[in-house]
Amino acid sequence: MDKIIITVLGKDTVGIIAKVCTYLAEKSVNIEDISQTIVQDYFNMMMIADISHATCPFAQLAADLDAVGEEIGVRIKCQKEEIFTKMHRI
Questions:
Q1: Do 26 and 88 form a contact (C-beta atoms < 8 A)?
Q2: What is the tens place of the pLDDT at every residue in 8-56?
Q3: DSSP state of 30
Q4: Neighbours of 27 (CB within 10 A)
Q5: What angle do CA 33, 34, 37 make, to 5 degrees?
Q6: Is the pTM of this model over 0.85?
Q7: From residue 85, how far is each of 11, 17, 46, 79 by CA, in Å?
Protein backbone atom coordinates (compact mmCIF):
# COMPACT_ATOMS: atom_id res chain seq x y z
CA MET A 1 0.00 0.00 0.00
CA ASP A 2 1.19 3.50 -0.80
CA LYS A 3 0.39 5.78 2.11
CA ILE A 4 0.72 9.53 2.38
CA ILE A 5 0.45 12.02 5.22
CA ILE A 6 -1.52 15.20 4.52
CA THR A 7 -1.43 18.16 6.90
CA VAL A 8 -3.70 21.18 6.70
CA LEU A 9 -3.03 24.34 8.74
CA GLY A 10 -4.64 27.74 8.72
CA LYS A 11 -7.39 30.04 9.87
CA ASP A 12 -10.62 28.11 10.40
CA THR A 13 -13.29 28.63 7.74
CA VAL A 14 -16.34 26.75 6.56
CA GLY A 15 -15.68 23.92 4.09
CA ILE A 16 -12.00 23.09 4.61
CA ILE A 17 -12.59 19.40 5.25
CA ALA A 18 -15.21 19.18 2.49
CA LYS A 19 -12.92 20.73 -0.12
CA VAL A 20 -9.92 18.53 0.73
CA CYS A 21 -11.96 15.32 1.00
CA THR A 22 -13.85 16.03 -2.22
CA TYR A 23 -10.59 16.48 -4.12
CA LEU A 24 -9.19 13.23 -2.69
CA ALA A 25 -12.37 11.29 -3.53
CA GLU A 26 -12.27 12.58 -7.12
CA LYS A 27 -8.73 11.17 -7.41
CA SER A 28 -9.67 7.78 -5.85
CA VAL A 29 -7.57 8.40 -2.75
CA ASN A 30 -8.81 6.50 0.31
CA ILE A 31 -8.67 8.35 3.63
CA GLU A 32 -7.67 5.83 6.29
CA ASP A 33 -7.41 8.09 9.31
CA ILE A 34 -8.19 11.71 10.03
CA SER A 35 -7.67 13.95 13.04
CA GLN A 36 -8.59 17.59 13.30
CA THR A 37 -8.49 20.23 15.99
CA ILE A 38 -9.40 23.87 16.20
CA VAL A 39 -7.50 25.97 18.70
CA GLN A 40 -9.14 29.38 18.99
CA ASP A 41 -9.51 30.28 15.30
CA TYR A 42 -6.75 28.04 13.96
CA PHE A 43 -7.53 24.81 12.12
CA ASN A 44 -5.15 21.82 12.15
CA MET A 45 -5.84 18.53 10.37
CA MET A 46 -3.73 15.46 9.74
CA MET A 47 -4.78 12.65 7.42
CA ILE A 48 -3.32 9.29 6.49
CA ALA A 49 -4.41 8.23 3.02
CA ASP A 50 -3.86 5.32 0.65
CA ILE A 51 -2.90 6.35 -2.88
CA SER A 52 -2.46 2.87 -4.35
CA HIS A 53 -5.56 3.37 -6.54
CA ALA A 54 -5.11 7.10 -7.19
CA THR A 55 -5.86 8.30 -10.69
CA CYS A 56 -2.81 10.59 -10.78
CA PRO A 57 0.78 10.36 -9.52
CA PHE A 58 1.87 11.53 -6.07
CA ALA A 59 3.61 14.65 -7.41
CA GLN A 60 0.39 15.79 -9.07
CA LEU A 61 -1.62 15.13 -5.90
CA ALA A 62 0.81 17.20 -3.84
CA ALA A 63 0.75 20.09 -6.33
CA ASP A 64 -3.03 20.00 -6.62
CA LEU A 65 -3.49 19.94 -2.84
CA ASP A 66 -1.15 22.92 -2.57
CA ALA A 67 -3.40 24.76 -5.05
CA VAL A 68 -6.55 23.74 -3.16
CA GLY A 69 -4.98 25.14 -0.01
CA GLU A 70 -4.23 28.46 -1.68
CA GLU A 71 -7.79 28.61 -2.96
CA ILE A 72 -9.32 28.18 0.52
CA GLY A 73 -6.69 30.09 2.49
CA VAL A 74 -4.86 27.26 4.27
CA ARG A 75 -1.54 25.51 3.86
CA ILE A 76 -1.70 21.89 2.71
CA LYS A 77 1.40 19.73 2.70
CA CYS A 78 1.64 16.16 1.48
CA GLN A 79 4.43 13.63 2.17
CA LYS A 80 4.92 9.96 1.53
CA GLU A 81 4.54 8.02 4.77
CA GLU A 82 8.06 6.57 4.73
CA ILE A 83 9.62 10.05 4.49
CA PHE A 84 7.35 11.40 7.24
CA THR A 85 8.22 8.45 9.49
CA LYS A 86 11.97 8.85 8.96
CA MET A 87 11.80 12.59 9.61
CA HIS A 88 9.92 12.10 12.90
CA ARG A 89 11.80 9.10 14.27
CA ILE A 90 13.09 9.61 17.79
A1: no
A2: 999 999 999 999 999 999 999 999 999 999 999 999 999 999 999 999 9
A3: E
A4: 17
A5: 155
A6: yes
A7: 27, 24, 14, 10
